[in-house]
């Protein structure tokens, strides 16, 4: 089901990406669109809002993203686990993954590739630096637009541990009282 | 309490780092030793076992790690949450964090900085590539030795979401039956 969303300041994406969830990467060129499952990513900077991630050269998405310099990082929750696994175990060279997995391609605001409407959040990205692409398949993207579901505050995200197993996001614990004020902020 | 541990093949560290836990980074030079809290990291390759991470230039650890090219990524669980927060809110320029937070410095096997005995796992690292350190404070380390606690299989790791809040690792879900065999392996 498509989710109702609100805008999120791009410097606050750490609240959703830093905990290490599996994400779905959507991309498109004039001939095709695609989705891949990806777990090797890290926040790198707040402003500009940078995310680094590994997209293996064998992926159909690699060529599209390298050529177009754009993608969307879509944040799925546990209700989408079978789609996440299916997308990670098929190739966009053979099928249209949006159709195959019943996902809705929704127009992005600032980039050409579509967002996935059923995901909890969508982070629209432009390639910021490709200096490590040849050596490590490591892309540094700038998040240029972000939207997040109105609720719940804490999504049950999927965290991959290899061998077909996932850890789900569990309960939330606050230690705000122990932080220096300058280190607070940028939360959910 | 120090944990009983077993060796872990270094290509299998993804099982513990890919889900995005907060880690404690220990470092040392001839004059001092230090610990920092770090959440911006990603697995980059299985063999060699590479991990990329952001260590901000303002940190006391930055200079030590840049100069020595070594550190240990220690994986804390939720029982260490107050130490994790304390370490992230103090500077090693002022205090010895091992003493201050009651943590045990244990000799590493392949690098000079000590491991933290109370952590669930310890990943001994050597600097592999510093090409992005000047531009992004992004270090690429090779994990040269890894040990992991004998139990439990699934540690309750800490995942930071900003603003003083953490999400704890929750329940585990398997979808092995939906995976292509070639994509399985490297799990816990």
Outline:
Chain A is an alpha+beta fold. Chain A has helices spanning 14-17, 60-68, 81-88, 97-100, 133-136, and strands at 5-7, 23-28, 33-38, 41-45, 50-54, 70-75, 105-106, 115-116, 121-129, 138-149, 158-160, 165-174. The longest helix of chain A has 9 residues, at 60-68.
Keywords for this structure?
homodimer; 188 residues; alpha+beta; 8-stranded antiparallel sheet; two-stranded antiparallel sheet; 37% strand
What does this molecule look like?
The structure is a homodimer of 188-residue chains. With 188 residues, chain A is an alpha+beta fold. The first copy, chain A, contains five helices and twelve strands. Chain A has helices at residues 14-17, 60-68, 81-88, 97-100, 133-136; strands at residues 5-7, 23-28, 33-38, 41-45, 50-54, 70-75, 105-106, 115-116, 121-129, 138-149, 158-160, 165-174. In chain A, the strands form three sheets. In chain A, strands 1, 2, 3, 4, 5, 6, 9 and 10 form an eight-stranded antiparallel β-sheet that branches. Chain A has a two-stranded antiparallel sheet with strand order 7-8. A two-stranded antiparallel ribbon of chain A has the order 11-12. In chain A, 49% of the residues are buried.
